[in-house]
Amino acid sequence: MMDLKTKRRTITDNGDGGDDLVLANLIANGDEVGPLVRLAFETGRPQGLLHQLSYVVKKKEAEIEELCKTHYEDFILAVDELRGVLVDAEELKGELQSDNLKLQQVGSTLLVKLEELLESYSVKKNLTEAIKMSKKCMEVLEVCVKCNSHISQGQFYLALKYVNLLEKSYLQDIPVDSLKMVIKKRIPIIKLHIEKKVCNQVNEWMVHIRSSAKTIGQTAIGRTATVRQRDMEMLEQQRMAEEQNVSGVGDLAYTLDVEDIEEDSNFKFDLSPLYRAYHIHDHLGIRARFCEYYYTNRLLQLNSDLELSMAQPFVESYQTYFAQIAGFFIVEDRVLRTTGGLLTVDQVDTMWETAVTKMTSVLEEKFSLMDSATHLLLVKDYVVLFGFTLRQCGREIGTLLDMLDSNHDKYHLLLLEECRKQFVDGLDNDSYEQLVIKKETDYESSVLSFNLQTSDIMPSFPYAAPFSSMVPDACRIVRSFIKGSVDYLSDCTHTNLFDVVRNYLDKFLIDVLNGTLLNTINSGKISVPHAMQIAANIAVLERACDFFLRHAAQLCGIPFQSVERLQATLTSKLVLKTTREAAYIAVQSLVDSKIDEFMSLSERVNWTSEETNQNGNGYMNEAINYLEYVLSTAQQILSMDAMYKVGVGAFEHISNSIVAAFSSDAVKRFNANAVMNIENDLQIIENFAEEKFYSLGLGEIYAEASFKSCLIEARQLINLLLSSQPENFMNPDVREKSYYALDYKKVAAICDKFKDSPDRIFGSLSSKNAKQSARKKSLDVLKKRLKDFN
């Protein structure tokens, strides 16, 4: 290395200078010489560059030569060694050729055997592959056979499982292309065939389930009715226990009966075809399409069921109509809960809303055409049971109940008219005679059942009730009205059922019961006994109002103690009392009219009689006989107070008739004999009034105002006209004591007509002339003073 470096320095020293050294360094270092070449040509000095490059070449050749001289001996030695190796290689090659020849001679037989062995191995491999392919094909064909068998047996779900098995596990591995292509083509055809068959089964099932829906709905609604009846019975027991303050009310709790479970276990319908179809379509990957298909077809069935048939009247077909719809939604509820996605809640809600809208429209139309409360109630009750049945399936029935509630006025109008007709018919058929009850059972049904008894002691039979047959008939009608009202309103949305029922009860009692009685009273076609019996009946009906209120509370499930605490009353009770007074007025008017026939004194009395009649006039005897009949009838029918009022009214009317006769324009004048005759009549009627007052047992009750006192005006007038000093009438003390019932104007008009002496020839020669003259003078003084006073 040192020699090399020395030589490099020598070469450098022998060079032309620095430029050659620079170029040599650049080439030695491997740097790029392009810039120098470019610079040389740009400056026009390429010769210098060429000279430098020649210098570099010579320098490199010198280095090579030096290097070869250095390694020449080593090269010679290496060539000698290589020649020795070639000799050894030739010897080895000869040996290998000799060994190979020997080996080929020995292995030729084995080579033939090896070729035969390899051929056997190839055959074996081919046979093994063929057997494997055959087995694979056999497995595929066995699956195909099973699939075909299930299809032929209608077991499409199992068939589809084998189809899916073929498609996913076998199809890609089938070694025979022709078989693979056949199966690949047949799989869609099989799926389509299964889909069609399953759809046909579903269609058949939908037809079957639709035909079974009515039975399903009727069964479910019937069970709802049974449960409601059981609940009502238990509530009634609880109410009775509360009213009787019986301990252990809490024991009346609802229990689940094992029989109910057994009944429910029998309440089944088959959904397996639908389940199979749903799962098959799910495996086919078209579940959404099947869900839409099912929903669309069931909705079409529902719309068809909602169309009301016109072949039968609604009152004959409504149960079938609603049972069909109930069965439909019971099935759909089961489908919703058990199929896991075939239907959605929103779809069922949509179907229910469609049904509610249609049913509401149908009911409103049919209700508007109904003219029977019984029919309307039957339909309403079945619709309520229908609603309660489907409410157990999660359906909202508020709209249906609201629609039923909106028709309660129409129902009650129909019910009022039906009950009015029944009551009018009963009133027309009433004999207006006291009801004679011959048996205890009749007493219980006509009296005790309505709390009409006046005593807790069972009477002896036959028993004459204080009312006619109209009263128990009316009570039965009212009781049926209350039940009908509660039956309609109980399942509606009223928060206070009892108040609503009470209002309708009041309306019925006022408009129907009271109105019909009042029309009968004012008809002018009834007799005195009839009017008395109506008044007595009304008095009993007033008492029955408390029973009606208790009965309404009972049916509403309210203990009567609660009603009493609330002090609930019926306005109709006061209205009936007013009508009873109207009946008394009618009785009084009829009696007065009859008395007027007897007491037409201006026609039946000789006002200028020349003699007196000690036995009285015939009209008074007729009036007394009539009063005897009236008071005897009143004693049998009316209460003591009512009988007293009738007697007081009759005797007051007789008194007024007597006074009115003296005041009548038809009587121009009268004499003392006429006054004496009326005095005799008055005494007769006074004696009768006094005797009757005490014989009727009124003396102890109304001692201060007897029947005789009702004749006081007539008595004081007659006493005044027969007085020897009539002018004392103007004396305040005398008038207050003896003539307080007389009116100045009436007395003045009557006195003007009074002629003390009979109008006949030689009347002034009578033996009574002096006495009559004194009375006449006193009477004239009275007339003058009355005239001055007026």
From TrEMBL:
This protein's UniProt keywords: Cytoplasm, Exocytosis, Transport
Domain Exocyst complex subunit EXOC6/Sec15 C-terminal: 400-753
Residue span, Exocyst complex component EXOC6/Sec15 N-terminal domain: 52-221
Cellular compartments per GO CC: cytosol; exocyst; membrane
GO BP: acceptance of pollen; Golgi to plasma membrane transport; intracellular protein transport; pollen germination; pollen tube growth; vesicle tethering involved in exocytosis
Record's subcellular location: Cytoplasm, Cytosol
Biological role stated in the UniProt entry: Component of the exocyst complex involved in the docking of exocytic vesicles with fusion sites on the plasma membrane during regulated or polarized secretion. Involved in polarized cell growth and organ morphogenesis. During cytokinesis, involved in cell plate initiation, cell plate maturation and formation of new primary cell wall.
Protein name listed in UniProt: Exocyst complex component
Organism: Arachis hypogaea
